Amino acid sequence: MNDTPPDDRLQRLTRTLLVPGLVLTLAVIAVYLATPSFVESLNNKATDAILSLSRTTAVSGSVVVVDVDDASLAKYGQWPWPRYRLAKLLQKINGLGAGSVGLDVILAEPDRTSPGNWQATIARELGYKIDMSAVAPGLVDHDRYLAETLSQGPFVLGYEFLFNDNVWWKPCDLHPLNTLWVNSTGTDMELVKADFFAAQSVVCNRTLFSGAVSYSGFLNATPDADGILRRVPILIRFEGKLYPSLALATLMQSEKITQVQIVQRKDRLLDLIVGRVAIPIDRKGNVAINFGGVSDAVQRVSAADLLDPGSRVVPARFKNKIVLVGSSASGLGKTYRTPALTVASDVELHARLLENLLTGRAVVRSGDAILWETLAGLLAAVLACALVARMEILASGLIAAASLVGLWSGAGALFQGTGMLLSPVLPTSLVALNYTVLTVLKSWKSQQYSRHQADDALLLLRTSENNLNSIIKSVPDIIFRLDSNGRITFISPAITKYTDSPDKLIGQPIFDLVAPDDLDKARYRLNEKRTGERATKGLEIRLLLPHHQDGSVEDIGYFSVSAEGLYRGDAPSTSSFVGTQGIIRDITEQKKLEERLLRAQKMEAVGNLAAGVAHDLNNILCGLVAYPELLMLELPEGNPLREKIATIQRTGQKAAEIVEDLLSLARRGVKVSEVVNLNMVISDYLASPEFAKTRQYHPNIVLETDLAPDLMNTMGAWAQFSKVIMNLVNNAAEAMPAGGTIRLSSYNSYLDTPSDLYETIPAGEYVCVSVADEGVGIAKGDLQRIFEPFYSKKTMKRSGSGLGMTVIWATIKDYNGYIDLRSTEGEGTEIAFYLPSTRENEETNPHRMGLEGYLGTEDILVVDDMPEQAEIATKMLAKLGYNVTSVASGEAALEAIRRKTPDLVVLDMIMPGGMDGLDTFRRIIEISPGQRVVITSGFSESERVKTAQQLGAGNYVRKPYTMEKFGIAVRKELDKGNQRPA
Q1: Strands (DSSP E) found in 515-658
Q2: Are 769 and 818 in contact, with CB atoms under 8 Å apart?
Q3: Which end of the chain is more exposed for a tag (fewer CB within 10 A), N or C?
Q4: Alpha-carbon distance 861 to 920, whole Å?
């Protein structure tokens, strides 16, 4: 219950209303002061209304329009009339005693109806000369006749200024103003004068006419943007001088005034002083016209009545009057729409302006008007705020309506009394807007106060709903709800990751999104009716929701669905089932990771298998590789057994190559790096017997090479890279059974951003090798499995063991490289590998040691648990001249060293059943620090080998080894330093 006292509540309500009222008022005033086009249009409409509703005032009776109207044209012919007739009309006006006569016509061309003109034309064009001697000389030339008439009366000619500097004009006699500038405010008068319109050219009367008069004025008038004429220029600058309008010139002629004054006012307007008349003008020389009052404020006389000899015009109608001669006939002169919603001709426009000037009814739109309107708007806004805050809606509305009437009446009264024209648009808008907005706000606050408890409950409900919506929006999983028929009734914003128009899914059966192969599995579990423990949890299905994976868009993804039934009431029943709700989680990436994990586990399993098999096979192969070499050393050249023994050796070496593939998988993460130039590896392979054999097997294959001459080096193993290139070329050849072209390329590549290819390749500098064929290609479903061990679609004839692609992947990954694979069935395949480049230089001419270079006589201890391996090493070293002893375990080696320290120990790293090589080496250096050791093993170089080398062990020799490899490693280790261990 709210116990706030009424006075406090009223004060709080007043403060609540004042802030938005102030903000609204300031915003409206800011827009108003910016004066956009719609504000200017509203102000024009408002001031037009004030002008049209102003009450009638007495007319001066000093302005008369002689109208060449439709009746005049019907009687005397089309316009323009011959100049003698116009002269007759002017003579009649002058004879009636007019004080000033302004001509709303421009006499720019000669009168073609003059007898002298048409006599010359007939003589020139027809060759016939008419005798004009009987015609009075004054009537032969109508223009001269009119000029003589103009020189005898108070006539003022009209002309028109042009504001296009591209218009040609001829010089003519105009009559500029003699202007006296009066600076009443200290403002630089040159700045004031610079605001007047500046004309570029003029359409004027013939010099014959303009020279016959003392006054002339321009006829220019331009409506506003909405087509209504509200103001006309009364002064225009031309060639550095000021010129009057026709109305001003006729007024000056009437008053016999030759000089005018321009006075700077305090309200940013100017006063043009013409004798006793003060004309308020803006800085551009415009004067606003008051079109209000009676329509017959200006007297009209038809030109036909004046020219009719039988007509009797009262001279009093023209005596000392200002007369304007023009035409209101249809289609002859310009017409203008006025704020009073009437149409005025050009002559009527100048006549109405003269009437304004003579009666003092000129319109004054002060330069400070907008400030006064803003102040009135502020006061009106304060009034509206106070009314709404302190009074009831009906009472405040009546007062607000009365204030609106008062604003418009006040603006009209101000104009009627002073000629000052203010627009009531701003205060009217502020009263209406503040009253409307604040009344709505007050009503809302009152309802809020009266229903406080209900609103609190509603607020809590809305807060809960907003929290729920926020949670739903933040959940990356898709939350859905189905009706009892399985149609989607709600789906959360997470669906926008998969579709641009989630609204289209509403009303669609959920089964339309299920992949066809999973439809049976989803049919009884997706539109779930069960709840609790029996509800669907973790149902894996594929949905037709496009998503981005690995740089491509897949139409089907893997999703996990959990769902339960919804029922009316607490007890589930068939009749109360209303639908299903659940969560769909995208597990596509998880499935991809599982596939990668499975692949990695498969590779690891193959590697572990390969490690064990390779160790055992290498121990067996040592005899097949080493003994033939020893036998051939003992057999003389030409012995028939040498060829058979060499065949045995080659067979053993081929078996060793297969073991090498197994070791490539077994040594993942373990590598020997040297500086390698891949161009040299490629050239070496292309010159090898292996490539020659490939060419022999595939005679229809053409190999094209494109090797970058500036190819950078990389770090790796020459033999491993050679095997990668060999496998790629062999695979390309076997993919083209009908023949074709293999393109083998090398190039440098710099990636400044990661590139999403077969796999994502980070930014960096790379050395690249590409092998492209024109073969059968690889099916899209096989692309992700092509590097799996033993995964092959080829017939195993000469195609190898099924480990070729796996060895390629393992080798490139061992040296921090990346693979790109692009293939299209029926078009071919391109495989490229990227290896990090290095700026180190390789040893271009490695020194190959001859047999005599690795002979010796030092004492060597061989440690190997395999008797046949120990025997092979012993015989090889003995053949090289060394004094060799052997032991079968690490423990025996320690005893032998305690008895006598050898010059070198050949230590096997794998010795099951006792101390292995690393443990043995640690004990050896405790007994004999600095002991030189060469490490051997049937496995690849492992972390334990590296640890032993970090502790001081020497070279590593992998079994099966040749005499040359073994002898060089032993000799290099013995030659390290000259000091023998004690």
Answers
A1: 536-543, 547-549, 552-554, 557-567, 577-586
A2: no
A3: N
A4: 13
Cite the beta strand spans of 850-932 per DSSP E.
Answer: 859-863, 883-887, 904-908
Nearest-angstrom CA–CA distance, 510 and 487 = 6
Domain ranges of the chain: 6-56+365-450, 63-111+153-359, 473-568+576-586, 588-667, 669-842, 854-974
**pLDDT for res 850:** 59
- How do strand 557-567 and strand 577-586 relate by DSSP bridges? antiparallel
Identity at 947, one-letter amino acid code: T
- Least confident piece of the model among 122-131, 170-179, 510-519: 122-131
The arrangement of secondary structure in 669-842, i.e. its CATH architecture, is: 2-Layer Sandwich (3.30)
Q: 767: which strand partners? A: 748, 835
Higher pLDDT, 659 or 635: 635
Q: Whose CA is closest to 812, among 678, 956, 959?
A: 678
CA distance 533 to 878: 78
- Look at strands 933-937 and 904-908 and give their pairing: parallel
48: its two tokens: 């037009």
Question: Do the Cβ atoms of 150 and 213 come closer than 8 Å?
Answer: yes
Structure tokens at 146: 């009119």
Q: Which amino acid is at 591?
A: K
* Exposure string over 286-299, b if 16+ CB within 10 A, otherwise e: bbbbbbbbeeebbb
- For the record, the structure tokens of 204 come out as 């004027």
Positive or negative CA dihedral for 958, 963, 967, 968? negative
- Burial state string for 63-76 with b = 16 or more CB within 10 A and e = fewer than 16: bbbbbbbbebbeeb
Q: How many helices (H) and strands (E) does the chain have?
A: 28, 38
When mean pLDDT is compared across 97-101, 650-654, 703-707, 777-781, the lowest value belongs to 650-654
Fold of 473-568+576-586: Beta-Lactamase (3.30.450)
**CATH homologous superfamily for the domain 854-974:** Response regulator (3.40.50.2300)
Q: Tell me the per-residue pLDDT of 812-841, one tens digit each, with 9 for 90 and over.
A: 888 889 999 998 888 899 999 999 988 777
Residue 317 structure tokens: 């109608």
For residue 505, the one-letter residue type is L
How does pLDDT run across 252-276, given as a tens digit for each residue?
999 888 888 888 877 667 878 888 8
Q: Report, at the CATH architecture level, how domain 588-667 is classified.
A: Orthogonal Bundle (1.10)
